[in-house]
């Protein structure tokens, strides 16, 4: 399935200008049909899966309690 720049921006939750910059930097693969750029939606699946894994990892790390250190000495 192909998306327009506007649809891709909505799908990625970023602005249209950001998508256009990524296209210019060749970080997003596109097809130009003579009128507009078309972006293949499936190229984002791996990236979005990695972001979800990273979010889960961050949540897991942040939810761990800080262990009490037995050898802590008060230096006052």
TrEMBL record:
Q: Where is the Helix-turn-helix domain?
A: 2-50
Gene Ontology molecular function: any one: DNA binding
Among Pfam families, the record links this protein to:
HTH_17
Alphabetical list of InterPro entries matching this protein: HTH_17, SinI_DNA-bd, Tn1545/Tn916_Xis
Under the heading NCBIfam families, the entry gives:
excise
Q: What is this protein called?
A: Helix-turn-helix domain-containing protein
Organism of origin is Pseudoneobacillus rhizosphaerae
């Amino acid at each position: 399935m192909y998306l327009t720049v506007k649809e891709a921006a909505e799908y990625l939750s970023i602005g249209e200008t950001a998508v256009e910059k990524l296209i210019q930097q060749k970080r997003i693969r596109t097809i130009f049909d003579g009128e507009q750029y078309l972006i293949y939606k499936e190229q984002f699946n791996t990236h979005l899966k990695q972001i979800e894994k990273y979010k889960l990892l961050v949540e897991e790390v942040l939810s761990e309690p800080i262990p009490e250190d037995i050898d802590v000495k008060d230096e006052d």
